[in-house]
Amino acid sequence: MAVARADILAGLSVAGLLVPEAVAYATIAGLPPQHAIFAALVGLIVYGLLGRSNFAITSPTSSSAAILAAVVAGFPAAAAGEREAIAFTAVIVAGLVFLVASFARLGSLSGFVSRPVLRGFAFGLAVTIVLKQIPAILGIKANGDPFHLLVGIFGQIGAWNLLGLATGLISLATLLIVRRYPVLPGAFIVLVAGIAATYAIDFPAHGIQIAGRIDIALQAPAIPDLAAREWSRLVQTAVPLALILFAESWGTVRSLALRHGQSVDANRELFTLGTANLVSGLVRGMPVGAGFSASSANEAAGAVSRLSGLVAAVGIAVLIGLAGPLVSRLPEPVLAAVVISAMLHALDPKPLWRLWRIDRDQYVACAAALAVMGLGVLNGMLFAIALSIVATLRRLGSPHVASLGQLDTSRDFVDAARHPDSHRDPRVIILRPSQPLFFFNAESSFAQARKLCADQPGAHTVILSLEESSDLDSTALDALTEFEALLRGEGRLLYLARLKDDARMGLEKAGAAALIQADRCYWSVWDAYQAAAPSQETSR
Fold first, then answer.
1. Which residues lie below 8 Å from residue 15, measured CB to CB, with a gap of 6+?
2. DSSP string for residues in 240-261
3. Which of 501, 448, 392 is nearest to 464 (CA)?
4. What pLDDT shows up at residue 540?
């Protein structure tokens, strides 16, 4: 009973947060507010029935709204009604991408986009979204990337609407103050206050727009009549939409699960998100994902199970059903303040500063942020994904082959260049590639190995430790056998250490069975060294 009570209270709190957020995110996507409401209802119900996290709230997110707006902007010649149909079709395609990935068991690709790239992307996207809310607060027109937005905003300083500015600042200050008390639904409080203010102030008469009518009548989606080339472009943009949605959602779900010791499965989350987005698109809703702000609010409100999400869906339906006309009176500066408040966590520069402090991946993260701000949301996102791939290939394609030395009289072997106190036997060269060997780096790795061997002409044996390679593709197998033949031609023996079973099988099938014989292949570097230099004590 106590569990149900906690979930009911948390669900009602989340409902009060999601209604103004959903309406605000619809403005980011350039859609009427009801489409965000439909999406929130679908996301909450589907995840409540199929999901596994007790705290994740699946609803429209600011990033997916911005990406959807960019997708639709790629069809500038389409009519207004057709552009809406394009948006809903993109959501359906994204849902199908999720489902295909789930059935193909591709949950392991959840880390396809590196965390530094995601952090940079999120920061750049947050800057873009926040700056795009400022014209709505000031009652002016300004478009373009963040740099042109700033020029447009300050270039119209004389046209700023002071009432809109005051409304936005008061709303934002209220949200920030109430945020200190997680049990209080800050967005709902601001929503009620904003609606109450409309009875005292005629905002449209002062040049301030309002949210507009919320039409909750469901309609069948209109599939646009597009040429094959346009359909191809729609599919191409829906794939990165799904990728970023899953990266954001899985990051939220996984962090909450780790915090509470809960088990979640990436493939199950793919299936749940796919179902939610497919149904959302069919009812003309926006894309949905497990957003960080709503999920964290659900956790802070005391939720203990997925019942809170189902209660939130009921709360949203009742609130819109009873107070839909009132919600439609919300001034845009209030909605803009809600969006800015929801994006503040992504504007925290600490994750980027940490990368500079540890001197790891900072340039990749900053490049991703600048790409989003300079190239636009969609192109910036594609650039960020390409950046992840390039960074991975660069790391894998530039391996370091270490020459190992023995620590004192122990059985431990370390990189001699980093441990000058280690001992290297002049008769034996021990090498270890730092990365898994495959077609992209095998040739360069063995080129380094040959150079290291040339530096020790007196050594009669080379030990190659392959602990980093779980398997060897055909290129790596060929490069290894060629390396062995080169050493044999120089009168040297090649021993293998820490060779994995799949790599052993590959060598056997490649006709290099001699390399995996008992006297040439060992489970540890120490065993190989003992075989190569049994009298190592006298060599010192």
1. 188, 311, 312, 313, 314, 315, 316, 319
2. HHHHHHHHHHHHHHHHHHHHHT
3. 448
4. 40
Q: For residue 135, how many other CB atoms are within 10 A of its CB?
A: 20
- Extract the tokens encoding 282: 């069919």
- What is the rounded distance in angstroms from the CA atom of residue 177 to the CA atom of residue 200? 24
Mean pLDDT in consecutive groups of 10 residues from the start of the chain, 540 residues: 75 86 88 92 95 93 88 73 83 93 82 77 86 89 84 90 93 88 76 88 88 74 68 81 85 84 90 95 92 84 89 92 83 88 83 88 87 82 78 78 87 89 90 90 91 89 92 90 91 91 86 80 90 57
CA distance 334 to 167: 7
If you count them, how many residues does the chain have?
A: 540
Question: 128, 142, 91: which is closest to 377 by C-alpha?
Answer: 128
Residues 6+ apart with CB under 8 A from 220: none
Q: In the prediction, which pLDDT does 99 show?
A: 95
Could you tell me which CATH number the domain at 401-539 has? Answer: 3.30.750.24
Q: Tell me, what's the pLDDT at 242?
A: 87
Residue 463 contacts residue 529 (beta carbons within 8 Å): yes
Q: 292 φ, ψ to 5°?
A: -70, -45
Phi, psi of 350 (to 5 degrees): -55, -45
Please calculate the CA angle 351-352-356 and round it to the nearest 5 degrees. 115
CA atoms within a 13 Å half-sphere pointing along the CA-CB vector of 435: 21
Cβ atoms of 480 and 508 closer than 8 Å: no
* Pairing of β 428-433 and β 461-465: parallel
CA distance 76 to 72: 8
Total Cβ atoms within 10 A of residue 494: 23
Residues 6+ positions from 177 with CB-CB distance below 8 Å = none
Query: Which strand (E) or helix (H) includes residue 336?
Result: helix 332-343
pTM attached to this predicted model: 0.75
Percentages helix, strand, coil for the chain (3-state, rounded to 5) are 65, 5, 30
The answer for residues whose C-beta is within 8 angstroms of residue 338's C-beta and 6 or more apart is 20, 21, 24, 171, 175, 187, 190
Side chain identity at residue 439, one-letter code = F
| Placement of tokens 């947060």 in the chain | 17
Beta bridge partners of 464: 431, 496
CA geometry: angle 93, 99, 100, nearest 5 deg:
90
- Strand 289-290 and strand 413-415: pairing? unpaired
Question: How far apart are alpha carbons 80 and 293 in whole angstroms?
Answer: 31
Question: pLDDT at position 228, please?
Answer: 76
Separation of alpha carbons 123 and 413, rounded Å: 43
Query: Domain map of the chain by residue range?
Result: 2-394, 401-539
Say if CB 480 and CB 496 are below 8 A apart. Answer: no
**What pLDDT is recorded for position 539?**
40
The answer to whether the CB of 249 falls within 8 A of the CB of 261 is no
Q: By the 8 A CB rule, do 133 and 336 touch? A: yes
